[in-house]
Amino acid sequence: MKSQPDFHTRAEIDQLVEEIYRTLETTEERLDRICDDIYFPMDLNTSDLTSKIKAIQGELLEIQSYIARRP
User: Fold this and answer.
1) Is the pLDDT of residue 17 over 90?
2) What is the reported pTM?
3) In whole angstroms, what is the distance from residue 10 CA to residue 15 CA?
4) Which of 8, 20, 22, 65 is 20 to 30 A from 47 in CA distance terms?
5) Taking the mean position of all CA atoms in its chain, how far away is CA 58?
6) Cα–Cα distance for residue pair 39/36, rounded to 1 Å
7) pLDDT tens, 21-68?
8) In sequence order, which residues have a C-beta less than 8 Å from that of residue 16 and are 6 or more positions away?
9) Cα distance between residue 5 and residue 49, in whole Å
10) What is d(CA 57, CA 55) in angstroms, rounded to the nearest whole number?
């Protein structure tokens, strides 16, 4: 029995290619979210700590200037 070659129209091939690209984009977005979940929280924690340190430093400066103004 002779197998017949598969022939596809240009529209069918275009549709298959579009589906492949859509799947690749979806997979890439999922991988980006996974990486963000892993690395971004560390970034946020460091950023939060830096912000808190700056706020504390500002409060210390206010306290020191208050003490310096006292008689």
Assistant:
1) yes
2) 0.43
3) 9
4) 65
5) 31
6) 5
7) 999 999 999 998 888 877 777 666 777 888 899 999 999 999 999 888
8) 8
9) 65
10) 5
